Amino acid sequence: MLQIADHASKTDVGRQRHTNEDNLYDQPPVFAVADGMGGAQAGEVASEMAISEFVEARDPERAAEEQLEQIALAANRKIWDMAQSDSRHAGMGTTLTAVMVDGQHVAVGHVGDSRLYLYRNGSIERMTRDHSLVEEFVRQGKLTPAEAEVHPQRSIITRALGPEPEVEVDTYTHSGRDGDVYLLNSDGLTGMINEETVAEILRDRESLEDAAEKLIAAANANGGKDNITVVLFRLGSDGDDGDAEEDEEPGTLGGQATQVGVSAETVRREVERAEKTKAREVPQETKARTKVVQERDSEPRRSSIQRAPPRPAPKRRKRRYVTAAIVVVVLAAVIAGLYALDRKFWFVGTNDRGQVTLFRGLPYDLPFGIELYSEEYQSAVPVVAVTDARQRKYVLDHHARSEGDSRALVRDIERKYARP
Question: Has this prediction a pTM greater than 0.85?
């Protein structure tokens, strides 16, 4: 049977927020992360309500997966009811990603864009699917996973606890293994550092507490634009594996690494020791999961191809300087023209908190961080609360419109969805 061999958790407000709307639950065998939305008067309340359900709504008679679903549904209803009765909490909601370890199995319940990762045999695998706008675009083939990671609308979620009276909860169960390390995190972590960096920190950790601190520090070093929460736990065997499933090949991610006459813990230690002294192998690709490409042997390889000697620098360098100057002048003129033109246009979109927002300008970003738009007005309505398909499309398509049409759209949304 599996047990929790070690666990650690940490949350941080980040570098650009004044309050922390994240909450976590770290009580083996249950772990959870909730990322609230709706402002300090609402998001923090919503995430706290979701986490409190793990104390109030646990039912040991139910299967682990069913427990997680019932907890999420109960939290959703309570958050929704409070938002309807108290205008200060209008539009509030929260993500929820939770795990319950039960024997040889790990049950997962998930709503929103917080994430669960499995680190096994030197590789990292994302175990949850974001309920977000860009993730939908990836599934539709409109964006690549790499483009989704840097898309300006990646923070817009399509499913959360609270905005609607009913919610669909993703649940599933998979087989855990001795030595598995699980990471639950809010998007304040993976929005700042990529999965390769996460895997590297987990690989080089001195302890789970050390890994948690380094993950938070890395996210803050890259900007810390949002609250950052991480929960880590490692599975260990109590020596009685019972009817442990072996439905995958040994040595693969998700497979049971065993050796006749040797414990799984011994195998894990030997593998980790070997990984530190030899070149890391490139892990094989697995279905719909992100794999980490490990470093290759650091020893340089000699090429058998003879490279031609470098060409001498051209004598006439002044011509290059003149050409570069012309390019800069033309580019500056184009940017100035676009800036003057975009003042005539308006559009409705969302800010980084997912709230319906009125912008002036064109919905485009130029190189060097130049934005052709500015925020003019922020409503209190989160886009996830807009259930009218036509209005929601207008908010998310970012088409330039006249000032009158844009303001009218925001007024109609506020009239319909804002709470008095």
Answer: no
